[in-house]
Amino acid sequence: MESPPLNLREFEELARRALPKMFFDYIRGGAEDEFTLRQNTEAFQRISLIPRVLVDVSSVNISTSFLGYDLSAPIMVAPTGQHKFAHPGGEVSTARAAAKCKTIMVLSFSSSCKIEEVASSCNAIRFFQLYVYKRREIAVKLVNRAESLGFKAIVVTVDTPRLGRREADIRNKMIPPKISNLEGLLSIDVDSQKGGSYLEQFASETFDPSLSWKDIVWLKSITKLPVLVKGILSTEDARKAIEAGVSGIIVSNHGARQLDYVSPSISVLEEVVKAVGGAVPVLVDGGIRRGTDVFKALALGANAVMVGRPILYGLAVEGEQGVIKVIEMLKNELELTMALAGCPTLKDITRKHVQTPADRL
Ligand code: FNR
């Protein structure tokens, strides 16, 4: 029997073996040259840790809160579409795992399980991620459904006016997503004669490329829930987001699946945090694979991190249990990092515990 995975990268390898190539490529892949995809993880490797010694770390506490919700760790589940590509349990299994790990799951608009099914299957703290389609009434309906089903926040993704060019999906003729939340609301026919992936065709028919800052104000007007924006990479946009009245900012390049050659999110985190100036909490995602990565993100000012692909790899390998293992691995690694770096609580993690490439100039 194969030895069990010891870390998130080993889960990726097992998922590669477990999944049909089309689905593994869809999850792993990034846009075009996948330059940013590689940078998302490599940028973490260029940040070094500066531990403090002779600090009493006989007890280390990694628990925190986000928007008033208590979490076992500053590690959340990023929204990723189509969990049934990874495992038949789909988002229901992921949500159950998130509940057991006492963390927040951001459910993707493009989920394969219906929002109602996810809501009734567990008591996880859930946020709902929204794509705004050309047909705006769909956003209104889904936001209303999320609100009445007890979702606690809306995360609007703003880096996807069109779908990034993911060449593995084009080559594999990736099948269009089955977005169960859209049942009865929208049906899109894809044309097998057209070039590109079916996924790309689906996105170009649906996503609203005219979405702009005034629509964030509109979105806030249709819900009582806090609205967070996901996909901020510049200080200018961070300021605009605050002006628009958002309740949180997610520094993200969509796991390098949209525009290639953008900065890795960890490299722009610190300047965004400075621009935000504590007005709202800041999350970061992209390339987090180790507890040391979580520590680095916190040292550079993030309130918490989100994890995308590793959750799907855990799900692919072992369903709900696999997701629990992935989250617990990251938590254990974070706890050990804090002990070895002399930080008994999250508040003890400071900018002085890391050295970035810019610090070395
Ligand atoms: C995503 N991501 C994403 N983001 C979003 O806002 N809505 C979505 O439906 C999806 N779907 C999706 C599917 C898959 C397969 C992946 C890998 C990613 C992006 C996701 O929320 C997150 O930003 C990245 O996954 C973070 O990077 P890592 O952790 O995967 O490196």
TrEMBL record:
<feature type="binding site">
    <location>
        <position position="26"/>
    </location>
    <ligand>
        <name>glyoxylate</name>
    </ligand>
</feature>
<feature type="binding site">
    <location>
        <position position="131"/>
    </location>
    <ligand>
        <name>glyoxylate</name>
    </ligand>
</feature>
<feature type="binding site">
    <location>
        <begin position="285"/>
        <end position="289"/>
    </location>
    <ligand>
        <name>FMN</name>
    </ligand>
</feature>
<feature type="binding site">
    <location>
        <position position="108"/>
    </location>
    <ligand>
        <name>FMN</name>
    </ligand>
</feature>
<feature type="binding site">
    <location>
        <position position="166"/>
    </location>
    <ligand>
        <name>glyoxylate</name>
    </ligand>
</feature>
<feature type="binding site">
    <location>
        <position position="257"/>
    </location>
    <ligand>
        <name>glyoxylate</name>
    </ligand>
</feature>
<feature type="binding site">
    <location>
        <position position="252"/>
    </location>
    <ligand>
        <name>FMN</name>
    </ligand>
</feature>
<protein>
    <recommendedName>
        <fullName>(S)-2-hydroxy-acid oxidase</fullName>
        <ecNumber>1.1.3.15</ecNumber>
    </recommendedName>
</protein>
<dbReference type="InterPro" id="IPR008259">
    <property type="entry name" value="FMN_hydac_DH_AS"/>
</dbReference>
<dbReference type="GO" id="GO:0042742">
    <property type="term" value="P:defense response to bacterium"/>
</dbReference>
<feature type="binding site">
    <location>
        <position position="230"/>
    </location>
    <ligand>
        <name>FMN</name>
    </ligand>
</feature>
<keyword id="KW-0288">FMN</keyword>
<comment type="similarity">
    <text>Belongs to the FMN-dependent alpha-hydroxy acid dehydrogenase family.</text>
</comment>
<dbReference type="GO" id="GO:0003973">
    <property type="term" value="F:(S)-2-hydroxy-acid oxidase activity"/>
</dbReference>
<dbReference type="GO" id="GO:0010181">
    <property type="term" value="F:FMN binding"/>
</dbReference>
<feature type="domain" description="FMN hydroxy acid dehydrogenase">
    <location>
        <begin position="1"/>
        <end position="359"/>
    </location>
</feature>
<keyword id="KW-0576">Peroxisome</keyword>
<dbReference type="InterPro" id="IPR037396">
    <property type="entry name" value="FMN_HAD"/>
</dbReference>
<feature type="binding site">
    <location>
        <position position="254"/>
    </location>
    <ligand>
        <name>glyoxylate</name>
    </ligand>
</feature>
<feature type="active site" description="Proton acceptor">
    <location>
        <position position="254"/>
    </location>
</feature>
<dbReference type="InterPro" id="IPR013785">
    <property type="entry name" value="Aldolase_TIM"/>
</dbReference>
<dbReference type="GO" id="GO:0050665">
    <property type="term" value="P:hydrogen peroxide biosynthetic process"/>
</dbReference>
<dbReference type="GO" id="GO:0005777">
    <property type="term" value="C:peroxisome"/>
</dbReference>
<dbReference type="InterPro" id="IPR012133">
    <property type="entry name" value="Alpha-hydoxy_acid_DH_FMN"/>
</dbReference>
<dbReference type="Pfam" id="PF01070">
    <property type="entry name" value="FMN_dh"/>
</dbReference>
<feature type="binding site">
    <location>
        <begin position="308"/>
        <end position="309"/>
    </location>
    <ligand>
        <name>FMN</name>
    </ligand>
</feature>
<keyword id="KW-0285">Flavoprotein</keyword>
<dbReference type="InterPro" id="IPR000262">
    <property type="entry name" value="FMN-dep_DH"/>
</dbReference>
<feature type="binding site">
    <location>
        <position position="157"/>
    </location>
    <ligand>
        <name>FMN</name>
    </ligand>
</feature>
<feature type="binding site">
    <location>
        <position position="129"/>
    </location>
    <ligand>
        <name>FMN</name>
    </ligand>
</feature>
<keyword id="KW-0560">Oxidoreductase</keyword>
<feature type="binding site">
    <location>
        <begin position="79"/>
        <end position="81"/>
    </location>
    <ligand>
        <name>FMN</name>
    </ligand>
</feature>
